[in-house]
Amino acid sequence: MVSDALFNMPFAKLYDCYVNKALRKNRNQEDVDTIICWLTGYDLTGLQRQIAKQHSVALFFDHAPALHPQHTEITGVVCGVRVEQVSDPLMRKIRYLDKLIDELAKGKTMPQILRQV
Question: Rounded to an integer, what is the distance from CA 108 to the centroid of its chain?
Fold first, then answer.
């Protein structure tokens, strides 16, 4: 299954995709790090540690300190699927992150992305 392959993929690989997408859209790695830390509760050191350990996407989210309390405000469509309607809890977390990175790539400001507006 596609989801099993994604869940078992090293988070570092997904992270590189997010950073490359941001860079192509004239954003930066720091913005990606801020978004990931905001959503997952990792601090920058913890995020870098998870990337260096090559943990799977599933382990990355399993070890995450806590989803941000405002994560339920992340709504919309990613890859043709409504984020808030994804039934698998892990896939929903991945889609939340995908949606935030999409918003970054589309030029939204960091306060908008981090639900501070």
Answer: 16
pTM value > 0.90: yes
Hey, which residues does 45 pair with through a beta bridge? none
DSSP 8-state assignment for residue 77: E
Under DSSP, is residue 13 helix (H, G, I), strand (E, B) or coil? Answer: helix
CATH number of the CATH domain containing 86: 1.10.8.290
What pLDDT digit, counting tens, does each position of 50-76 carry? 999 999 999 999 999 999 999 999 999
Number of domains in the chain: 1
Q: Encoding tokens for residue 86?
A: 């994804």
Structure tokens at 42: 């990792």
Q: In angstroms, what is the C-alpha Rg of the chain?
A: 13
Q: Which two tokens stand for residue 57?
A: 């996407």
